[in-house]
Design goal:
The chain is mostly beta strands. The chain is built from 1 helix and 9 strands, in the order ββββαβββββ. The longest helix is centred in the middle third of the chain and has 6 residues. InterPro entries: Peptidase_aspartic_dom_sf (IPR021109).
Length: 81
């Protein structure tokens, strides 16, 4: 089971090793595949492993010193950065 940011459990469909591109950087990472509304969610495990720091007040992700813009998607129940 996948534990969501709201604390709910959700089944996932499998795992895959994918290349994730952020700015000029490419990372290979094992991800969980699930039927969710978002295109993808970067977990704390990914952020820590690849030293990516979200700078919420400025709206970007610091990826090894590069500022990668983040865009917020909101609905009435939750906000995803």
């Amino acid at each position: 089971m996948l534990l969501t940011v709201t604390g709910e459990s959700q089944p996932f469909d499998g795992k895959a090793e994918l290349e994730i591109m952020l700015g000029t950087h490419t990372f290979t990472h094992e991800v969980l595949l699930a039927d969710i509304q978002q295109d993808g969610i970067l977990g704390i495990d990914f952020l820590k492993k690849y030293k990516c720091d979200p700078i919420i007040s400025k709206g970007y992700l610091n990826v090894k010193g590069e500022k990668v813009p983040c865009y917020m998607k909101s609905d009435e129940k939750k906000t995803v950065l």
